[in-house]
Amino acid sequence: MHRLNYKKLSLALIALLLIGLTTACSNSKANKVTVMGSSAMQVLAEQAGHDFHKDHPNSNIIVQGGGSGTGLSQIQAGAVEIGTSDVFAENQKGIDASKLTDYKIAVVGIIPIVDKGTGVKNLSTEQLAQIFMGKITNWKQVGGKNIPITVINRSKGSGTRSTFERLILGNREPMKAQEQDSNGTVRKIVSSTPGTISYISAPYAKDSHIQKLSLNGVKPTNENITTNKWKLWSYEHAYTKGKTNKMTKEFLNYLLSKKVQNGLIPQLGYISIDEMKVTRDSNNQVISN
């Protein structure tokens, strides 16, 4: 008799344990938000995820880089909850943008930077293009010192590189050059290597050891970006696919909230979507003022 009751009790405990594990797994999945892609947006996503967790202790926000191409391919594959990108999904080969939902979170300026010893603080857009095509090879050709130019490009798959080449080179081919996939690494190399030139996202450009370049006499300020006077900028997109879990929706709403748009975004060196006085489409055409 006792043996039979013990058996029933054991089965009941096992059933409760399984229910508990199932519920825990379900909650864990519902609270998990993996964000992957743009390295330019990584700083913003990481800090926002950290702040969001304070108000949502059950949330599990995981932020990874990898580049805009990776972010778009991973969200298309359904491998992450949010794929971040500096480029429109429509412009990425192999991506079906019609199956993704686009949330424009912020705007980021792209800043050409050089070694401070070059003696150059301003270039025309065409001079910058000629340098990245390998046609101009010494700083004295653009009014600087007699120092050979060393070009550092961003890695293929970088949204920053894609935007830079689209806006500066058009359909022309860049020269073969050293490639780096990190804004921080590019900044470090340029600050310590004579004659170097590259470009980085604005949040990484606050460094007195590098020279930020003006283009056509226009400085890369936030005010000039909001009016498109400084044309070298891109949206920071957050893409989702299909039905998202509750925590993903809440995190996206948080990124678009006034708290983040008016606080964290300008604090980190990005520009709020609300501050932009122009809108740009996927063909880089300004469609409203």
What would a concise description of this structure say?
The chain is built from nine helices and 14 strands. The protein has helices at residues 2-31, 39-55, 68-76, 125-132, 159-169, 183-192, 222-226, 246-255, 258-268; strands spanning 32-37, 60-66, 82-85, 100-115, 122-123, 150-154, 178-180, 196-201, 210-212, 214-215, 233-241, 271-272, 279-280, 286-288.
Describe, in plain words, how this protein is organized in 3D.
- The chain is α/β, with parallel strands linked by helices and 289 residues long.
- The chain is built from nine helices and 14 strands.
- The strands form three sheets. Strands 1, 2, 3, 4, 6, 7, 8, 9, 11 and 12 form a ten-stranded mixed sheet that branches. A two-stranded parallel sheet has the order 5-10. A two-stranded antiparallel ribbon has the order 13-14.
- The radius of gyration is 24 Å and the shape is elongated.
- It starts with a helix and ends with a strand.
- The model has no long low-confidence stretch (mean pLDDT 91).
